[in-house]
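Thread: quick sanity check before group meeting

JM: Hey all, I'm pulling together slides for Thursday and realized we never actually wrote out the predicted structure for the chain we discussed last week. Dropping the sequence here so it's in one place. If anyone has concerns about the input, flag it before I start.
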Amino acid sequence: MNIKSASLAVMLSCPYIDAFAQELDNQPDTLPEVVITSVKAKETATGPIHKYKASQARTATKSETPINETAQSVSVVSSEQIRDQSVQTLADTLKFVAGVDAGQRGRRGLDDFSIRGFVQSDYVLRDGMRMFYDTAWVQSEPFGFERVEVMKGPASVLYGQTGPGGFVNVVSKQPTDKPLATVGLTLGNYDQQQWTADFSDALNKDGTLRYRLVALTSESDDKVDFVDRSRTYIAPSLTWDISDRTSITLLTSYQKSHYVPVRGLPAEGTVLSNPNGNIPLSRFVGVPGLDKYETEISLFGYEFSHMFNDTFTFRQIVRYSTFNVDGAFTESSSTNNTPLPANKLNYPRRLNVRNLSAQMWTMDNQLAAHFNTFRVKHDMLIGADILHYNMGRTFTNRSLTALNLFQPNYGATVVGAPAVVANSTGSDMARQYGVYLQDLIKFGDGWNMQLGLRHDETDLLQTRINNSRVKSDPSKTTGKAGLLYAFENGWSPYISYSESFLPLTGNTADGSPFKPETGEQYEAGIKYESPDHQFGTTFALYDLKRQNVTTTDPNNSGFSIQTGEQRHKGFEFETTGQLTDRLNVVATYTYIDAEITKSTTNTLGKRPILVAKNMANVWARYDLSGWVQGLGVGAGARYIGNQAGNGENTFNVPSYTLFDAGLYYNTASWRFALNARNLANKQYIAGCASMTQCYQGDPRTVMLTANYSFK
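JM (edit): ok, ran it. Output follows.
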C-alpha cells in the first residue's frame, strides 16, 4: 500500500494535519509485509478429529504415536463420519473400514463383525479396556463415541487375551474445553424415532473442572414381522485438571436395551432353491411376545494421569462394569444338515431362554518414560493390568411346534415344559494378570522401531449344575516387533510381527485341559500422510495364523481335540481424508484368502464361513457451499463378495452391492440431514452360518435428523 496516497484520508479526519503530514513524508513509500498465520489445535489421541482423517490413535501403542509412525495397520472412524453416515449401531460404524465385515449375521441386536476374516465380536474395548470377557451379548451406542479405532491383527502384547484378527476400541466422548450444547431428533421409516442431547461446559471460572452429559433414547420397528427395538443411554463424565501435570476424568454410563433378535432363515428358500418358492425376508421364525431380549449395562471408572517431570508420566485406568441379560430367541432344532423336511415347508424350532448376570473390574497401570541414549530416542512403556470377571448363567430350552414358513400360524406354539441345560447353567470366573514392556525407538533420519513383550497368568473356573468343574491356569508370553521408515515426503514403509493368545475352558477325553489358542501375524505395508495431515493411505499385506483350534475328536465325538488351524492371507487398501477443501473421501478394498489348514473333520481345506474373499467400499461427502451456503451431499457404495454358506462349503452366499446417500444443510444453529442406506432397497442375505441360519440383510432405511446447537 502507498502511504502517501493514503495521507489525504488522514488529513480529512485529523486535526494535527501538518505535524502528521511531515511525519508521513519521512516514512518509506510502502509498509512491510504482514504475514497472518492461523494455528490449528493439535489433535489428541482421544479428542475430536477434524473431518474424517485421524493422525493419532492411542489403541496401537497406548501412546500418542502418530498413525504414520505405527508399524501395524490401524483404522480410525471419526465422530464426524459417524454423524454424516447417520449410523445406528457399531456394525454400521465399521462398514467402511478395510478388512472388516460388519453385520454379516444380520440384526440380532449384537455387535457382529469380523476382522481379517476372524469373528471378533467378543473383543470390543471401551477407552482401552475390555467391555466384557467372553460374551458378545451387547450392542454399543455410537452416539457416545468420539471415535472408533480398529486394531488389525494380534495385539496380546498390550491387551492380553484377544483373538487373532484384532479388536475394536471405542473412545468415549469426554468433557470439552469449549462449551457445547446440542439437542437432536431423528425420524425415519419403520417408525424410527430418536432423541439425543450432548452438553459440555466448565463448572468453575478457570475451566479446570468440566463436565459432559451425553444422552439418547430411541425406538424403531423392523422389516421383519414382530421385530422392534428400543434403547436408553446416558453417559455423564467429569474432568478435573488438578494441576498442570495432574488430571483425572470420571467416566460413567448406563444403557438399557430391548430388542427382538432376527435369527435368520433356512438356506433352502433364501440362497438355495425351494420347490415352494422364496421365503419372504420379512418372515419371523420366532414366537411373538417370547422372542426378546432385555439388557442393562452399567460402567463406572476413571482415567488418572500425572506427569512427574519431562521424562516420567504415570497413567491409571480403572473400570467396574455390570451386565444383565434376560431374554429368549428361537432357532432351528434340527440336528443334521437338512433343516427342512421333505415338503420344505415346516421349520423345526426350539426356544432358548438366557439369563446372564456378570460383573467385571479392570485396572491398567502404565508408566511412560521418554529419554535419549546417545542419538536414539526412546518412548518406553511399562505396564501391569488386572481383569476380574464373574458371571452367573441359566440356560433353558423349550420345545416349539414347527412353523410353516409360507403360511405361518403364530398361535399356541409352546409344547414343552422348560428344560434346564445343565451343561451350560452355572457360573464362570476369570482372573487375568499381565505385565508388559514396550519400547518405541527412533533413530537416524526417520527410522522407527517398535518392540514389545508381555507375560500373562490366567485362572479360569467353569462350574456347571451337572457337577462338572473345569479349572485351568494357562500362562503365556507374547511378543511383537516392527520397523518403519518415515520419509520426509509422507511415505512410510513398514514390516511387523505380532502374536496373540486366548485361554480356552474345557478338556479333552483324557481330562487334559486345552492349551491356549494362539495367533501370529507377519505384516508388511506402506502408509502415506499428506503434509497437512488431512489425507492418508495405507497398503497392507499380511499372513495370519490361528492355531490350537478345537475340532471334533475323531475317536470320541463327545469331546474335542486341538489340532485345528486357520490361515488367512490378505491385502488391504484404505484411503481417508480431504482430497480438496470441499471433498472428503473414504475408500477401501480388501482381499482375504482364508483356509482351514488343519482339522479332524471334513472342513479341512475349506473356506471358513462368513469370510468374503473380496470387499470394497467408497464414501464421499462434498460441500456445496459454493452454490448454496451450508449445503452438502454424501454418497457411498458397499460391495461384499461371495461367502461360504457352511463349514463344508456345499453352497455359497451370493455377493451384493448396496448404495447409501446423504443430504445436509447447516445454518447458524441448525443442522438438517436426510440419510438413506440401501437406497435401492436390495433384498439380500448378509451371511450364512449353516443350512439353518441365513441372515436377512438390512432393508432400505431413510432418516431425517434435525440438530439444534445453543450458542
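AS: nice. Residues 3-11 form the longest helix (9 residues). The mean pLDDT is 89.
JM: adding both to the slides.
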